[in-house]
Structure formats: structure tokens, C-alpha cells
Amino acid sequence: MGKNYVDIENDHGEMLRYRKHANGRGLIAHGAKVHPSAVIEAGAYVEPGVQIGAGAHVGRGVWVESDAVIGPEADIAPHAHIGAGAAIGGGAKIGVRTLVGAHARVAVGSLIGDDQTIADGEQVATDRRGLRLAA
User: Fold this and answer.
1) pLDDT (0 to 100) of residue 38
2) What InterPro entries is this protein classified in (predicted)?
3) CATH number of the domain that residue 70 is part of
4) For labeling, which of 17, 48, 68, 127 is most exposed (least CB within 10 Å)?
């Protein structure tokens, strides 16, 4: 049986320890809080301070930066990038290769398509078809 963690050096030369999440084997940094029912797929990275709610799904190759919050039942498609301090509401869906900037907010139940960019600090709400609602 192999080890259940990996040490990775960050951009500042600090060593961070990541453990493999039981559901999906994605890497969870020390200090992140991930609900046991969430699925973090292999190849995903969850940084320190992140909170991921019950039933959330984080796809292969996703990078969730520090202090981001992903609500319950949210679905983050493969290769998306969730910026530092961003918040994804419960039940929201984030598309493949989509970038959610630092401190951006995606409302509960929103649908963000593939290859989209949500700017740093932007607040977005959509209907179930992905059409943006007025702020």
C-alpha cells in the first residue's frame, strides 16, 4: 500500500503536504476542509483554507486556490481554475477550462459554460440555461 500524501514545493519555496481524498484521490492541502461526501478527482489540487461542501464534485485537473469556498452539490468540470477567495454557490455548475477569478462570486444554482472567464471580484448569477441575470 502506497503513501496517502505527497509533498509539493510552492512558488515561495515552501513545502506543502497534500493528502489524497478518499473519494476520487485528488490532492487536498493541509488546512483545507472537504466534506467526506464530496468527490475530488485525481489530478485536482485543493489549496489551504479551501472549504468544499457536501456532495460537491471537483473534476480532474481542477485547481482550487486558497480560501475559496465551493458550496454543496456544486459541480466543477475538468481543468477549471477557481481563484483565491472565490465563492461558488451551492448547486452551481462551472464548465470545462473555465476561470473564476480571485474573490469572484458565482450565485447558487448558476450555470457557467465551458471556456468562460469570470473576472477577479466579479459577481455572476445565471438562470438554469446559463443566461446571465441583471445584477
Assistant:
1) 97
2) Hexapep, Trans_hexapeptide_repeat, Trimer_LpxA-like_sf
3) 2.160.10.10
4) 127
